[in-house]
């Protein structure tokens, strides 16, 4: 069969910048859609979008491929935005809604793996696993240098900021370790955990804060100097949500000066830039925003993205509308 003729009959899908899920499953996407790859075009992004303005009805994006008002202005025929992520703070949701553009995400397919990393980071910080790895590799163990004691996870009072899909899964896992759970969320939920309407109050009553909420105007820098001070010298901060939820400059200062005990960070305020002051701190564990990066999660993410796109082009309800 003529490949070009087959491609012509496929619905068009715009990709301004490819997400990791798209890159891994690009061949499968190409079998279902005529891919409009702005990132491979010699044209500027704006000119490429203008060229396909009238035909583009659907696009796929992710955190590093924001859908702004400017992008929407260039795509007057756009009807669907699908993000290859659970979060959607990179999409101008209000503008999409005002234009009647549907938005879909990957729902909770990345929640299990993100929760695992959240717990893993906490164990690592408390038991100094990464620091111990560096200690052994440096030869300090054989040199008879004293290695510091860690702290047990069981019995810790953990405050979860944002008790959504990920937060609930973190809570369930930590309960199994014998942790006491409390939480802060936009509203109280029917769960057996103590609710704190104020994040600072939650921090002052807990040993650990695990950040699981979405990034919004309201949550940006929500974890500020006052919250970190409330968490205290023995407190641990874990962030598997979004970097800008934490005032990173204040966090660096608190960690460097020993005003909190440690942190496990999968996300940062200006990724991929990480404050260099953190590199030398043994009480900090750093990972490159990979909490949801597993083969299984990417496979599930591809399936739900594909299902949303196929539903849209078949005039059926979306699988996971935002």
TrEMBL record:
It comes from the Eukaryota. InterPro entries: D-isomer_2-hydroxyacid_DH (IPR050223), D-isomer_2_OHA_DH_cat_dom (IPR006139), D-isomer_DH_NAD-bd (IPR006140), NAD(P)-bd_dom_sf (IPR036291). Residues 119-291 form the D-isomer specific 2-hydroxyacid dehydrogenase NAD-binding domain. GO terms for cellular component: cytosol. GO terms for molecular function: glyoxylate reductase (NADPH) activity; hydroxypyruvate reductase [NAD(P)H] activity; NAD binding. Keywords: NAD, NADP, Oxidoreductase. SUPFAM superfamilies: Formate/glycerate dehydrogenase catalytic domain-like, NAD(P)-binding Rossmann-fold domains. Residues 42-322 form the D-isomer specific 2-hydroxyacid dehydrogenase catalytic domain. The keyword NADP applies. PANTHER family: 2-HYDROXYACID DEHYDROGENASE-RELATED, D-ISOMER SPECIFIC 2-HYDROXYACID DEHYDROGENASE FAMILY PROTEIN-RELATED. Belongs to the D-isomer specific 2-hydroxyacid dehydrogenase family. This is Glyoxylate/hydroxypyruvate reductase HPR3.
